[in-house]
Amino acid sequence: MQQLANRLERLGTETAFSVAQAAAAWKAQGNRVFPFHLGDINIPTAPHIVEAMNRAIADGYTGYCPGPGIPQLREALAEDLGSRRGISFSPDNVVVMTGGKPVITKFLQAVMNPGQEVLYPNPGFPIYESQIEYLGGTAVPYRYLPTSEGFAIDLDQVRASITPNTVAIIYNDLQNPISAESTAAEREAIAQLAQEHDLWVLSDEAYFETRYEGVSSSIASLPGMAERTVILYTFSKKFAMTGSRLGCAVAPLEIAKVLSTLNTNDESCTTHYVQWAGIEALRGPQEPVQHMLDILRGRRDAACELVNSIPGMHVAVPQSTFYLFPDVTDAMERMGYTAVGDFATEALYKTGVSFCTREHFGRRQPGEERQYIRLAYSGIDVADIRDGLGRLR
Ligand code: PLP
């Protein structure tokens, strides 16, 4: 009998996509669905970016191109990302990829041997846990503690979890799913631990510019950090380009070279004409970015107001990302639910409101008692937010 590879037992996935499937099936049966499940964006990519992509196709940029990306895009990325972070990057530090997600796998392939440990945020983007384990490492979670303003990393747990076998820490400031944002002190504490223990850092900056107040700051800009940090950057969220699959790693030169070779092995290159659209996104008009943020801010306000009007649900108003991560423990208790998955399933079938829960973002840690759901408001208009969450209430 033919067999599949043993390592597949360790492969996780992004289960938000199965929630999307359940919602689509319910909709196909003629039911109304309010989609809060996926961090996709129902605002189209700006016309000038689409035109640049079409022009590139018409001009014949449809063949292979260099593995680490076309020089013009690498240059634009080094300039844009460097200036927004106060760091001087060379185009050689930039490796273009098919979105932000491949940076996670390739970073781990570059720095982690089987049996070594990597710290990762939990709840967090589920691909961290999946890929660490798939590649034979040990995924060591660190938690966030609720505060009056949102959430803060449990630094004591991070400290206690580092062993001589730890090689890296994954850090996602402006966090999915909980929208946590580090204070400067928290960022410095993580940087200090990384230096003390000689760890690599994957700084997932997918939402660096998806923020409503203030400006973001990268851990890579702290003294001694650029040489040990790989930045994950993506066009997906900032430019509403989720399906175009364009992102990059910005990495110290020795890692950038390895990432480029991994690209050549895995994809040959990132889609050639999409890279020209990326240059236009970075260098062209920036008004659509602000316009999208204004729309998202209106949705956030509507969603927070409604969530906080539901007895037994609570969320602090986040200043970044497009996710809410309300504590629903008391609401579930009032209605007699013990499993958050049952709560989500019944919410879909009784109200049409579709969302992920804490269970979609890495395995639960011991002692974790509160129940949370994640509401993504990037793919749903204000009127439907009010209608859907009104029904949920
Ligand atoms: N990192 C985080 C925290 C994300 O939320 C996502 C997407 O939702 C990604 C990485 C992957 O981004 P991309 O769609 O560009 O691959």
From TrEMBL:
Keywords on record: Aminotransferase, Pyridoxal phosphate, Transferase
Presence of keyword S-adenosyl-L-methionine: no
Record protein name field: Aminotransferase class I/II-fold pyridoxal phosphate-dependent enzyme
Annotated InterPro entries: Aminotransferase_I/II_large (IPR004839), AspAT/PAT-like (IPR050596), PyrdxlP-dep_Trfase (IPR015424), PyrdxlP-dep_Trfase_major (IPR015421), PyrdxlP-dep_Trfase_small (IPR015422)
Species this protein is from: Sinomonas terricola
Membrane-crossing segments per the record: none
GTP-binding in keyword set: no
Pfam families: Aminotran_1_2
Domain of life: Bacteria
GO molecular-function term, one example from the UniProt record: transaminase activity
Domain Aminotransferase class I/classII large: 43-389
Cofactor(s) of this protein: pyridoxal 5'-phosphate
Family classification: Belongs to the class-I pyridoxal-phosphate-dependent aminotransferase family.
